[in-house]
Amino acid sequence: MLTLANFALAIQNVFQPDILLAMLVGSMIGVVVGALPGASATMALAVMIPVTFWFEADMSLLLLISVYCSGVFGGSISACLLNIPGTPASAATCFDGAPLTKRGEGGKAILTALIASTFGGLISGIALLFCAPLLAALALKFGAPETMMVALFGLTMVASLSSDKLVKGLIMGALGMLIGTIGLSPTGSARFTFGSIQLYGGLQTVPILIGVFSIPEVIRMLASHGWKMDTSKKSRMRMAFKEIKSIIPTCSIATLVGLIIGLIPAIGPETATFIGYDRAKKMAKEDGETFGKGNIKGVAASEAANNAVCGTSLAPMFALGIPGSGAAMVLMGGLMIHGLTPGPTLFREQMPLLTTLFFGFIIAQVFMLVVGFGACKLAPLVFKVHHLVLAPIILVVCMVGTFATNNSLFDVYIMLAFGVAAYFLGNAGYSCVPMVLGMLLGKQFETNLSRTIVLSQKTGFLSFIMTRPIALVLAGLTIITIILPVIMEQRKKKRLARIALEAEGENKQGAQDMNLQNNADC
User: Fold this and answer.
1) By C-alpha distance, which of 205, 232, 248, 215 is closest to 118?
2) Cα(281)–Cα(276) distance, rounded to whole angstroms?
3) Would you say 68 and 45 are in contact if contact means Cβ atoms under 8 Å apart?
4) Residues 6+ apart with CB under 8 A from 166
C-alpha cells in the first residue's frame, strides 16, 4: 500500500538530476520515434532495452516509461499533419486531425492531441499510483468471456463509423473480419494460406495500418499540384480557453475507456483509440455529426483514450506478472533484467521502488507535455517541403518502418498491396476504417469465443455467460449501443416531421391572413 514515507522517498528519488535527464531524453526519443510512420512505442522500448543495462533499476525503468508515454503521443503528429498515423494507436486521430490540417488548423490539431494525451496520461498515472493493487485485482476479473464481449462491443462501432454509408461500411467491416481469419485458426487448422508459410501467422496489423493510411496519401501527393489545404489561416499552436474547456468532457469519457481497456491483456491502445472515439462521438449531442470532418473533440477522444491505456496496462504487469499490452511486456523484460520479478512479492518487498516508478510515470507526462509542445511547434515546417520531395521520403520511411517491425520483406509487399487497394476503394466511396476495425477486433472476438466455448463445455455457453457479471454488463451495453441509435434516429425523424408540419401550418395560416387582408383592402 502507498504510505506517506514511500511517497516522500519517491519524490526525492524522481527529482534527482540524473533521473530527470534520463526522463527528458526518453521523452525526446519517444516523440521522435512515435512520429515516424511504421514505428511504435513498443518498438522504441525494444530498441532502448540494451541501453538500460548500464543504469540502476529506477533510472532504467523511468527512462523506458518516458519513451513509452511519449511514443504513444508522438504518433498523433504525423496523424494530424500527414493523415498517416505514426503508431497504430493514433489511427483514429487521423479522422479529425487531417481535416483540421487541411483547413489550415494543423497547429490546433496537434495541440489538442498534446493536451488530451497529457490529460489521459495524468489520470492514468494517478490511478496507477493510488490504485495499482485494486486495478490488478480488477484485471483478474477479465477472462475470455469478458474479452470476447469487449471485442463484440467494439465491433458495433462499424455502424457508427459508417453512418453516412452504412451498407458500404458493413461490407468493409465484414471484409476486415474475413482478413483477420487468415492464418491458423484457434483450433490449429490453416485458413486462406494458399500453401504460403508466411501466411500461417496471419497478416500483421502494422503493415496493413501503414498501407491503408499512408500509401493513398502518398499517391494523392504525387498526383496533385501541391498541398490541398487552406493557407488563409496560419497553423498556430493556439487554442481558446473555451475550446480547451469544451474537450474536457470528451477527454474524461475517452480516458475512462482507456483505463478499462488497459487492464485487459492483449487488447492495447489500438482498440482503445477506436472505442474512445466512438463513445465520445455518441455522447456529443450537438456536434456528433461533425466528427470525422475536423472536430477537435475527435482528436481529443482518440489521444486521451490511447494514453490512458499506458498507466493501467502496467498495473497487472507489476502486481500479477500479466502485461496488459505489448509495451507492458517489454517493460516487464526491463524489470526482470534488473533481477526484479513481477508479482505480489514485488509489492511486498519493493514498494519504495514501485512508488518511485508510479510517481515518475506522472512526472513523465509533464516531460511529454514540454517536449511535445516543442516538437509540435516544429512539426508544421513539414509543409515547407515540396510535396514531390516529401512523398518519396514518406514512402521510404513507411517501407523501412514496415520492414523493421518483423524484419520481413513480405510485410512490405502486404503494406504496398493494401495501400494501393485502399486508394482505389477510397475513390469508389469505400472507407477502409471499418475494415481495419473488423480485422483488429475480429481476431480478438474469434480467439476468445473459442476459449469461452471450451470453458463452457460442462455448463453450456449461455449458462456460463450468465455467471459472469462483467460479461453480462458488456453484453447489455452492446445491445443498448445497437438499439439506441435506431431509437434516436426515429425520434429525430418524428421531430423533423413535426417541425415541418408546424411550419406548413404556419405558412397556410399566414397565406389565409394575407388573403383576408387583401380582401379587406379591396
Assistant:
1) 248
2) 9
3) yes
4) 159
Residue with the larger pLDDT of the pair 11 and 480: 11
Q: Which residue has the higher pLDDT, 482 or 256?
A: 256
- Measured CA to CA, the distance from residue 65 to residue 363 in angstroms comes to 10
Cα(81)–Cα(110) distance, integer angstroms = 8
pTM score, two decimals?
Answer: 0.75
CA 470 to each of CA 66, 145, 146, 460, 475: distance values in angstroms, whole numbers, following the listed order: 33, 9, 6, 18, 9
Is the CB of residue 86 less than 8 Å from the CB of residue 34? yes
Query: Pick from 445, 362, 401: which is nearest to 154 by CA?
Result: 445
Integer Cα distance of 323 and 407 in angstroms: 24
Quick check: 353 pLDDT over 80?
yes
Q: Locate cell 518498438: which residue?
A: 43
The DSSP 8-state label assigned to residue 190 in this structure reads: E
As given in the structure block, the three cell numbers for residue 270 are 489500438
- Contacts of residue 317, defined as CB under 8 A and 6 or more positions apart, other chains included, come to 323, 324, 328, 329, 331, 332, 342
Cα 37 to Cα 90: distance, rounded to the nearest angstrom? 11
Alpha carbon distance 146, 448 (integer Å): 9
